[in-house]
Amino acid sequence: MTNYQTVLKENGVTLRSITEEDFPTLYQLIYCDKEPEWKKWDAPYFPLKFVEYDEYVEKITKSILLEKDGPESQLLIEVDGEIIGTVSYYWEHQPSNWLEVGIVIYTPQYWSGGYGTDALRAWITHLFNQMPLARVGLTTWSGNYRMMRAAEKVGMQLEGRMRKCRIYQGEYYDSIRMGVLREEWFEGDSACR
Question: Nearest-CA neighbor of 53 among 72, 82, 28?
Fold first, then answer.
């Protein structure tokens, strides 16, 4: 199972399908540190629920096998052949094509190097090219300034701010909704994506 179905490239970043061979690496990146640094940025107000390896493999295998309509909902992010994270999407409301994207870079040494921005750009372009979406959205929290900055850099706009609705380490944060419309994504310089 080493043939990749999807391979996208943006500068030095590759997005590709998840294969069975990737399961141990992904599991280690997600679960092998009891308090992973990446979780302090990725919705830290929701605890990371530890699962055993076999349960993880069963869950990810089911999600991969069930994806028959539309593009894969999760791809790996690689830099120089090393898995550093994932991009994903989920349906907020599929009947109206309301889709939200996410990105996690698990490896801190790849933070603030533009890899997340490149991965997000390639992912959004792919989703617009594969589905009849009018908009792609992203939800984060005001403590994740890297995510907000990457979203701004690719052309997403602040669409909503729910004030003081997330608590992390005793402090209130805002929930942030950002998005980009298809016509905004492909207009002007963006057409070269």
Answer: 28
Contact, 26 vs 17, CB < 8 A? no
Tokens, residue 18: 């998840």
What CATH number does domain 7-192 carry, 2.60.120.920, 3.40.630.30, 1.10.4160.10, 3.50.50.60?
3.40.630.30
**Three-state SS for 41?**
coil
How many C-beta atoms lie closer than 10 Å to residue 158's C-beta? 12
Closest C-alpha to 126, from 80, 165, 74: 74
Please check whether residue 180 is in contact with residue 136, taking contact to mean a CB–CB distance below 8 angstroms. Answer: yes
DSSP symbols for 117-128: HHHHHHHHHHHH
138 within 8 A of 101, measured Cβ to Cβ: yes
Q: Where are the domains of the chain?
A: 7-192
Instruction: Measure CA of the first residue to CA of the last residue in the chain; give whole Å.
Output: 30
pLDDT per residue as tens digits for the range 51-109: 999 999 998 888 776 666 678 999 999 999 999 999 999 999 999 999 999 999 999 99
